[in-house]
Design goal:
This protein is of the alpha+beta class. Helices cover 22% and strands 27% of the residues. It has two domains: 146 residues, Clavaminate synthase-like (Double-stranded beta-helix); 96 residues, Clavaminate synthase-like (Double-stranded beta-helix). The two termini are 30 Å apart. The structure holds fe (ii) ion (FE2).
Length: 286
């Protein structure tokens, strides 16, 4: 319980990132004091989970807009009807087996929209339906790795080596690596040229450095041969996702999860199958 904000409780996880927030109802505007306390917790824990929310698309958008400018995702075919800024992340299907949402979102480690020149700081994901096993345990967890803690764990020599390096991030690099890409259109590819970002990237708000590189998303490093760059990208990528840096989020219906893309990488675990249902709404905020 916070002395300044009676009713607000922030419970950190055991991992380097992640905290649960209780006592903040996001269906109505938060007071300035509670909002500021949540923002301070976000700067510190990088992944916040507001439990037990009951949100309309309008309420999710109102909260998102208070945080910053909303970015529209490149996978625009899965926008929520009437709300182009809300992406449906879901495995739901219609009777003909047609996908009703973006089902494969985040099935490999990544940080959101790093392929853009100005990646969004935050992603918000609101859980409408969560799959579970026969004993009621939730399935489909999302894992978050602290890329800042991983940077802190580097030896001095590596830190100096990567200090000025810029990695090249490619939109849908994984999908485009196969012979017949089906998940992306030529128009989407043309709209999203490669982007360059520091390998050791200072956080835009806190200034804390984090590793901002990921194999499968980064196709190289500026001015460095692939023979040297790709193994370096692999090595840093593997470091980030070591167990010691990971928070495992167990979803519950009503969770509004918000994460700090410059500080963490994440992966959605696909340990469930239709007709087990998973449905979420997502916004991204600059
Ligand atoms: Fe993601």
């Amino acid at each position: 319980m916070s002395a300044d904000n009676p009713g607000l409780e922030i419970r950190p996880s055991d991992a380097p990132v992640g905290a649960e927030v209780f006592g903040a109802d996001l269906s109505a505007p938060l007071s300035d004091e509670v909002f500021a306390a949540c923002e301070a917790a976000f700067d510190r824990y990088s992944v916040l989970c507001f439990r037990g929310q009951s949100l309309t698309p309008e309420a999710l958008l109102a909260f998102s807009r208070r945080l910053g400018e909303i970015k529209v995702n490149a996978f625009d075919q899965h926008a929520l009807e009437g709300f182009p800024e809300v992406l449906k992340v879901s495995n739901l299907q219609d009777e003909g087996g047609r996908a009703l949402g973006y089902a494969d979102a985040g099935s490999h480690w990544h940080t959101d929209m790093s392929y853009t020149a100005e990646p969004p700081r935050r992603t918000l994901l609101y859980a409408l339906e969560v799959p579970h096993d026969d004993s009621g345990e939730p399935l489909g967890p999302t894992l978050f790795a602290s890329a800042a803690a991983a940077y802190d764990a580097l030896d001095e020599e590596t830190r100096e080596r990567i200090e000025t390096l810029q990695a090249v991030h490619r939109f849908a690099a994984k999908e485009r690596g196969v012979k017949k890409p089906v998940a992306v259109t030529r128009e989407q590819i043309e709209k999203n040229p490669d982007a360059r970002h520091p390998v050791a990237r200072p956080h835009p708000k806190t200034g804390r450095k984090a590793l901002y590189v990921r194999k499968g998303e980064c196709i190289g490093i500026d001015g460095m041969d692939d023979a040297e760059a790709l193994p370096l990208i692999d090595r840093l990528s593997d470091l980030i996702v070591e167990d010691r840096f990971i928070y495992r989020h167990r979803w519950a219906v009503g969770d509004l999860l918000m994460w700090d893309n410059p500080a963490v990488q994440h992966v959605a675990i696909r340990d469930y199958e239709w007709p087990q249902r998973r449905a979420m709404w997502r916004t991204t905020v600059r």
